[in-house]
Amino acid sequence: MAVTFPQSFGKYTLVRKLATGGMAELFVAKSQGAEGFERDIAIKRILPSFSEDEAFVKMFIDEASLTSKLQHPNIVQIFDFDVIDRQYYIAMEFIEGEDLQGIMKDGTAAQRPLSVAQCVWITIELAKGLHYAHTKEHKGRALNIIHRDISPHNAMVSYGGEVKLMDFGIAKAAERSTKTQAGTVKGKVAYMSPEQARGKVLDPRSDLFALAAVLWEMLTHKRLFLRASDFETLTAVLKEDAPEPSKHRQGIDQELNDIIMTALEKDRDHRQATVEVFARELTRWYYKHVTDLEKESLTGYMQTLYAQKIPQTSAGAGKGKPSLSEAQTVKGKPEPAAKGRAEALAEPIKRRSNPELAVPADAKSLSRTVEASAPEILRASPPARARARTVEPPAAKPQDFASSATILDDGAINQADLARALAESRGHKAAAAAAARGESGRTSTGAKPAALRNPEKSGSKLWLIVTLAVLGIGGAVAAIVLATGS
Asked: pTM of the entire structure?
């Protein structure tokens, strides 16, 4: 019997089914409140056949409990978790947009692939959400969350240009009730880090590897490690080095190559230390090369690519200017697709220019997504990365600053320095006295006088002569006094 919509599901109304996966189904639903309040949400519900699987139900509960603690603009928000008629479900934020896998496919089909800078920006946004999850604390304790399933399917881009990470279904956290057994491999094989493929204990650098693999694929439109079988794919992950993305696409410079290739190192100790460091390197590259905000608007790209798919009643983004720290919102209505799809894809969306972001006519234009001026600190050129992609000690150069400890070490006056200074001072005094007597500062052979060669010894002799002279004069005076008295 066919299921009809809308249908009631507890306090929600299911509007339509979005998808059915291997273990769960996803619906668009409406949540109603007092005074006619209504909002669109997504309902993820366990399939009836899996509701009796205790292990799976526990994993589902873990996902809900874990993700509900994560509140970040780049992570899909969890609103509710409950069970109705023995069916467990999660109520979550509904993203009106497409997953990254679909965007890559549709963009290629329309001959309008994501630009290099748009790929970089999407990665930066995903990295923000990942770093937040990696460092999230709850009640004063670190959750130590690792996503473990980063892939284009689990990244969403809304029609308003928002980028969000979703599906922490197999994420591992220190506090989860259901523990992953040691040596168990989970996640999509083609995006696993080498350490995950080996079943080792993971840290956030595993997600970093997977995120870099996603960026590599966005740029090249090729699968990095995917092979004919899981065994061959795992072998590629463990043993095959990734080629530089510039070999498969023009417009990628060596700096961007190095950032990506470092994150794809087989040895995690050779990767960037954290996802945040990776994001900073990409951000520096982005603001160094991107000059045209309007041309590479991610909002405009989504509105153009999906011009005929976006419902006329949905919000049409692209009217406002998003900032670095704020998520983009969807406002207004999209431009009607009066022309054919090919013409619509070829015609850029007209938007107001921002005079504050004007650039010289001869400036090199690559791409830009975020429509805000770059902070000065992000415009600085990063240090060149060694091709071996290991951290090398910086070349010796004058210090720009010194710490208090350095100042104390360098500026301390010791006894040897003091004795040397006093000796030099005595030598200069002796030379001045000789000059006053009309003596030459040097002998005929050019050698220094004895007073300058050994000032301390000469000074001692001078004091001895003066003392003897004083004693001699005193003795003479005493003798005269005695003679007169007698």
From this structure: 0.64
